[in-house]
Each structure stands twice: as C-alpha cells, then as structure tokens.
C-alpha cells in the first residue's frame, strides 16, 4: 500500500512538474533569443547610422571607425558596404563572413527584409544605411551565439534543478504520507494476527494515522474486548459445568458400588446396568466438554513434527489395538513435514481418529497412519478396513451426534473437525479401497526456510 501511494504521488508530481517547468523553460528560451536578436540589431543600426553619414553626407569616416572599433571590442564582426556591394570598412574579423554577408547586403539594397542564415556558432544581422527604399549602403554584423547558448543552457539547467528539487520534495513528502497512512494499518494488521493466534488481550494503537484509521483501530479494540469477554465467559461456563456434573456423577458411582457390595444377585445385576449407564453418561459429559473446549479454543500455532507425533500416538495405542486383535502401524512417510498447529492438537486429533478406527475395526483387521507433503499442506491419513460408512453417515459425521451408526458418544469426529478447521486445515472422509474408511487431514505447514525453498523450486521433492 505504501509503495502504491508513493509511486502514485511521485508520478502525479512528475507530470505536473513537466507540464509547468517545460513550457516555462521554452517561453524563457524564446524570450532570450528575441532579446539577443534585438540587441544585435540595435548594435547594427548604430553602425548603419554612422555609415549613412559617411556614405550619403560625405562626412569623414571618423565616427564610423569609432563604432567599428567599439563593435570589435565587444567581440562582434561588422562590415560596411556601399550601394554597389563594395566593402567600405570593416572590423578585422569581418573577412570571415564570406558569401552569406554579400547575399544579405543584396537583399537589403533591394529593399527586402533579409532572412539571417542559420550559421553554426554565430548570428548574422543586416541593416540598410539610410532610407530603406534607396539605401546608400548596408551594414552586416556577425555576433557569436556562445553567450546566447550559455544563457539558454542556464535556463534549462535551472529548470531541471527546480524539477529535480520538486521531485525530491515530492518523494520525501510521498514517503512520509505513505508511512503515516500505512504504518498504523500494518500495526493494526499485526494486532489482528496476534488476536487470531490467541492473544485475547491484544489491542491496537488508536493514536497514530488518519482519523479513519484511528476509528478503525478503536472499533477493533471494541471487538477484541467483546471477544475476550465472550471467550472468558465460555471458559468459565465450561469449568463450572465440568465441576458441577462430574462431582455428582462420581458420588453416584461410589454409592452404587457400596450398594452392589451387599446386594443379592438380581439387585447386583441391576446395579451393574446402572453403573454402565453412569459410565456412559460420564463419557458423554467428557465428550461434550471436549467439544466445548475445542470450539472455544483460539490456538497459537507452534511448529509440530508430524512424524514424531504419529510415531508417539501409534506406540501409545498399539497395546489397545493388540488386545482387540487389530494391527496398528505407521505407514512409510516421505519428507517429514512440520505443521502449524496449536499445542497438543495433533495428539488429540489422532487419539480420536485412532480410537474410532479401533472401535470400528474387526478382529484381524488393520489400521494404518501415514503422512506426506502436498504443496503448502501436510496430508495425514488414518485408514482402516472396517465396515466403513454410508454416504448419508459421512455427510453428517462431523456434527455433534450426527452419525446414528456411531458406537460411542458420536463426538469424536466433531472434535477432530473443530480442531482441524480452527487451525486452518481441512478434513474429509473417503472410502478405503477394498472396504473401510479413510480420514484425510490437510494441515497447514510451518513456514520454515525449507518450505520456502521447495515452493520456489516448484514443490517438494518426492
């Protein structure tokens, strides 16, 4: 944004400077040329007046020589011709005028307005000596164009200096303006990112930038304060519910244990059924609390090695799988990806998926957990060869109690979906070739240098 503001203002200033400075320099150049020509013609007329006194009135050439000497001292080359185009008097350098001077004299003697030729390095001017219609002679004066060129160069030099100075001032002003506008927005963006990462006490600076940006920062702070209050309120509710529900359930379970110890066989069977229902209710409460915690979680991403977590969770669940006659193994992985997830989230995700797969797998079945890199994401798959799920069940599997075919609480996939999506990933269900269910997780990769090199190189190496 700051670059766009800077370049826009610089381009606009450059156009304005060109439209203002260039026409002014052209006008000053033309005015300087006219003034230089007028000065040359005035000097020529002075010599022509002295030449008229000598040629028409027959006076001595003293005044004429004086004017020619003054012209020579000024650096001009002057020549006086009579009516027959014969050279009467001249300065020492007049011999260099050549045929151009004679052509100008002929034009003057015929009563025509001469057109001075464009001669490199000098300017010629011709004036009649006496009456324009019947001149007694003509005067040709050649003056170096060096002073005129120097003045014109000075005009364009000062114009360029003014343009450069204006452009430099515009660049400085544009940079300061762009920073004044963009820096508060960058700060606000950083605050929003930290708030999204879980820093609920993050607030933006409302003292810098334009009024619109300050109002936006104030609105952001209001939103952040309300979000913090809501999240803290939800956490308090979850903590209270957890305490208020678990305590009476534990007390009820203890009382049933005491009653079962001294009851007869029929009563003991009924009490055992009641204890199973209480255990099921406890698991349901724990599942609901886990979903509530997952839904209110605002994770701060950390670098998590997928291969290490997969190996750890497979090792932890292997004894449970072996008790049920199920083979649990980690599939061969390629490049070990590092993902950006909240602390402990990948462990919780895999625990829920492996638990569901172990419950669904038949004796003698297998469960495989593998991972690989797919562009900017890390893909983790949990595959089993159990009965699988129907299309209708897969469509509602990620909802709370959405799967009517679930053998447990029906909350495991809801927790997985929430934990994956809150970290910026995706999860989907697919059929395992040959039968069974495959859960596919696409998790955001940690933006390390290795990932950036792979991205520049066109993707990860296989």
Describe the structure.
The protein has 462 residues and is of the alpha+beta class. It has 3 domains: 149 residues, 2-Layer Sandwich (Beta-Lactamase); 67 residues; 158 residues, 2-Layer Sandwich (Heat Shock Protein 90). The protein contains 11 helices and 12 strands. The strands form 3 sheets. It has a 5-stranded antiparallel sheet with strand order 2-1-5-4-3, sandwiched between helices. Strands 7-9-10-12-11 form a 5-stranded mixed sheet. The protein is rod-shaped and about 165 Å long. The two termini are 38 Å apart.
Short overview:
With 462 residues, the chain is of the alpha+beta class.
Topology:
Elements lengths: L1 H54 L6 H12 L3 E6 L4 E4 L7 H12 L8 E2 L2 E9 L4 E10 L1 H51 L14 H51 L3 H32 L5 E4 H18 L3 E4 L7 E4 L3 H16 L5 E9 L2 E8 L6 H5 L16 H11 L3 E6 L5 E8 L4 H8 L6
Parallel strand pairs: 7-9
Antiparallel strand pairs: 1-2, 1-5, 3-4, 4-5, 6-8, 9-10, 10-12, 11-12
Number of domains: 3
Q: Tally the helices.
A: 11
What is the total tally of β strands? 12
Low-confidence stretches: 449-462
> Distance between termini?
38 Å
Name the features.
58% helix; 3 domains; 5-stranded mixed beta sheet; disordered C terminus; 12 strands; Heat Shock Protein 90; Beta-Lactamase; 462 residues
């Amino acid at each position: 944004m700051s670059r766009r503001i800077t370049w826009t203002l610089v381009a606009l200033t450059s156009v304005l400077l060109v439209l203002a400075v260039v026409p002014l320099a052209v006008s000053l150049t033309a005015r300087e040329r006219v003034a230089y020509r007028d000065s040359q013609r005035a000097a020529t007329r002075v010599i022509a007046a002295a030449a008229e006194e000598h040629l028409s009135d027959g006076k001595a050439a003293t005044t004429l020589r004086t004017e020619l000497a003054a012209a020579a001292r000024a650096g001009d080359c002057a020549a006086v011709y009579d009516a027959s185009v014969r050279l009467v008097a001249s300065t020492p350098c007049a011999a260099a005028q050549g045929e151009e001077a004679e052509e100008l004299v002929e034009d003057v003697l015929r009563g025509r307005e001469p057109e001075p030729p464009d001669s490199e390095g000098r300017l010629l001017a011709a004036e009649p000596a006496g009456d324009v219609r019947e001149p007694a002679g003509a005067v040709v004066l050649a003056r170096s164009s060096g002073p005129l060129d120097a003045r014109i160069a000075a005009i364009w030099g000062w114009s360029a200096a003014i343009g450069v100075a204006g452009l430099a001032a515009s660049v400085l002003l544009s940079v300061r303006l762009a920073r004044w506008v963009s820096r508060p927005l960058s700060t606000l963006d950083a605050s929003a990112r930290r708030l999204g990462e879980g820093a609920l006490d993050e607030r933006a600076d409302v003292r810098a930038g334009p009024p619109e940006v300050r109002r936006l920062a104030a609105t952001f702070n209001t939103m952040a304060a309300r979000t913090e209050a809501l999240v803290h309120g939800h956490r308090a509710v979850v903590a209270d519910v957890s305490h208020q529900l678990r305590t009476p359930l534990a007390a009820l379970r203890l009382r049933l244990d005491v009653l079962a110890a001294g009851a007869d066989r029929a009563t003991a069977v009924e009490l055992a059924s009641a204890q199973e229902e209480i255990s099921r209710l406890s698991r349901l409460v724990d599942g609901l609390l886990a979903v509530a915690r997952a839904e209110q979680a605002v994770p701060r991403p950390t670098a998590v090695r997928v291969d290490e977590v997969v190996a750890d969770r497979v090792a932890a669940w292997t004894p449970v799988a072996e008790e049920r006659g199920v083979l649990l193994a980690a599939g061969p992985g390629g490049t070990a990806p590092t993902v950006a997830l909240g602390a402990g989230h990948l462990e919780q995700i895999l625990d829920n998926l492996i638990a569901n797969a172990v419950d669904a797998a038949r004796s003698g079945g297998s469960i495989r957990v593998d991972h690989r890199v797919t562009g900017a994401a890390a893909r983790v798959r949990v595959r089993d060869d159990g009965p699988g799920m129907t299309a209708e069940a897969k469509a509602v599997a990620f909802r709370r109690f959405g799967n009517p075919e679930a053998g447990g609480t029906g909350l495991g996939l809801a927790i997985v979906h929430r934990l994956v999506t809150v970290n910026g990933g995706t999860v989907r269900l697919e059929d395992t070739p040959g039968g069974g269910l495959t859960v596919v997780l696409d998790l955001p990769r940690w933006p390390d240098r290795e990932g950036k090199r792979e991205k520049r190189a066109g993707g990860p190496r296989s």
